[in-house]
Design brief:
There is one protein chain. The chain has about 210 residues and is α+β, with helices and mostly antiparallel strands. It has a single domain, classed as Jelly Rolls (Sandwich). The chain binds fe (ii) ion (FE2). The site of fe (ii) ion (FE2) has 5 residues, from loops.
Length: about 210
């Protein structure tokens, strides 16, 4: 499959940022290995029709931004000031961001108040992303300063790469500060949430869905 070079660079930089924390979080690496092995297998498969991944075929949503994207540049400035692997990942994200179709969380309406225009999500790999994959979803989330992201849960296990500092909750425990470059792993179906501090929160997330 002929994968978009900017997307490949982003995938590589995400993998490097995650593997940089392998010693701290050996328990998170099996999922990461599944995700990046699947993406590498999709890239090297000779026939797209025989893979679980397909390149951009024109069916993906057009690039689009939302009001919350006004915080993207300042979030990127903060991310670039993080660890070297996060700075490199931020550069890869900056290259591909103009291609992204930013959307709101499903079901969110203006009746949800400030959250409506204070968050934005975009999918890079997976349904609605730049490249489809049945098992892997990789996306990013952006929150305006001070904004909480709703407590939620989902069957796929999830691994976040924190790009800018923020507060994170798991299993209805206390919110704890996570710094740039930290990883957050959510086992299937556990409740979790995050909260921006006085600066925008930007994070990458990977989902693995057994198919
Ligand atoms: Fe989640």
């Amino acid at each position: 499959m002929d994968r978009n070079t900017k997307l490949q660079n982003f995938i590589d930089a995400t993998r490097v940022a995650i593997r940089a924390r392998a010693t701290d979080h050996p328990d998170m690496m099996p999922m990461a290995d599944r995700v990046f092995s699947a993406l590498e297998n999709a890239r090297t498969a000779p026939e797209p029709a025989a893979t679980r991944s397909t390149p951009d075929n024109g069916a993906r949503p057009p690039a689009a931004r939302l009001p919350a994207c006004s915080y993207f540049n300042s979030a990127m400035d903060a991310a670039r000031a993080g660890p070297a692997v996060v700075a490199a990942l931020s550069e890869a994200l900056a290259e591909i961001e103009p291609d992204l179709s930013w959307t709101r969380r499903r079901g969110i309406t203006p009746q949800d108040g400030a959250f409506y225009d204070s968050h934005a999500n975009a999918i890079l790999v997976g349904k609605g992303g730049l490249e489809h994959h049945d098992a892997v979803t990789i996306g990013i989330s952006l929150l305006a300063p001070g904004m909480p992201y709703p407590r939620h849960r989902h069957p796929p296990e999830e691994l976040y790469v924190v790009l800018t500092p923020g507060k994170w909750m798991q299993n209805d425990g206390a919110f704890v500060t996570r710094r740039s470059g930290d990883l957050v792993y959510n086992a299937p179906d556990i409740w979790h949430a995050m909260q921006a501090t006085d600066a925008p929160l930007l994070a990458i997330w990977c989902l693995w869905s057994e198919t």
